[in-house]
User: Fold this.
Amino acid sequence: MRKFNPTMIILVILLSGLTACTSQPAEQNDPGDENQNDELNLGMPDSSEEGDAEEIIAEIDITGTSWQWLRFESSSADENILVGDPSRYTLLLNEDGSYNATVDCNQARGSYTRESNLIAFEPGPITRAMCPPDSLDSAYLAFLFSAADFTVESEHLVLNLADGGGKLIFAPAPVEQSDEITEITWQWIRFDDTAGLNNIVIADPTLYTLTLNPDGSYAAKADCNHAAGGYTLEGSSLTLLPGITTLAECGPDSHYNTFLTLLGEVASYLIQDGQLYLNLWADGGSMVFTPAE
Assistant:
């Protein structure tokens, strides 16, 4: 049987009396108490404010910008990484759910999914050139595929890794122009397949043209169709972004569909002997253009 503790009984009686002395009727509360409570609640978002925040995040557009990787911030300061040449590590998110990435001396493509501020990257094709010994190519891809969500802070894209694994900090790449390829109407004359199995020679180059404008847009003629979109240029790296295209059905011998498909595969460019070579990713071949007369 449990014994009563006299000391505990006395303590309970004293506490009960103290409570009775300090209690006041509700109507005698200081009117300032309500204001104090309001002040304490400031900064605590209600459900409507949380909904507004989600809408704001959903409206943030991170597509169409070529982002350059600046640094990796780890939970442990001794594991931080400062990228010496951010132009060697870039990320371009396309509106169609695909991405393009410069991974040091290689080019990568893949897909991504986004829901509000949640984001995930799926690997895709990548070239396999041997980069310099100081390359961060493997680390960059590992970080990228571990991304869980993002924020935009002071015009910087921040990819937060899963399980508090750190974050990647990106900045918009400087807008570049190349006078040697812009404001020129280029006519497609042939496609050189790397394997030599699917070479194409264009009978009438005037039907297939490409013009890169200084403002980062392009216009293309694909036989009986016309296309327009944007492009990013970083050194010799060139990406033509998907845009709007007419959908007329050209003749049976038309290369319009092949032309537009190949433009979407361009990774870099080269000027040689006055001709423009648009090189495809993964050594897929080159589209060769000549200036229109």
